[in-house]
Amino acid sequence: MSPDDLPLPLRPLLVVDGANVVGSVPDGWWRDRRGAAERLRDRLALTGGPADGPFAGPYEIVLVVEGRARGVASVPGVRVEEAPGSGDDLIAELARNASGRPCLVVTADRELRRRVEEAGARCTGPRSIPAAPR
Known about the structure:
By secondary structure, the chain is α/β, with parallel strands linked by helices. The protein has helices at 18-22, 33-47, 87-96, 110-118, and strands spanning 13-17, 60-65, 78-82, 103-106, 122-124.
């Protein structure tokens, strides 16, 4: 078997708790939650996620939105998932269904961190998401 016959390694999954990350910066997000989620989505698409995370990228990026942030479209590089109920429940489900591949969840929510770590995911805080270059 030649090296070309070997399967490509699975890209690590990066799941971003949109409400938690957006809410970590007091920039007026509460006036336009959907717009704040779109800005986060665009920043993720531009930066590709944490530069110094525990897994080598590139990541498959999933941004989870809920409530008034629904309606944000996916863009190349970032799949947006709308939580039908609790965003935390969807994030925990995505971590459980990562199918053995590396999974990193971005959130500061302690209870959510506990849940996804039980599912085998790693966690990092909102500050790990790089700012968009100016």
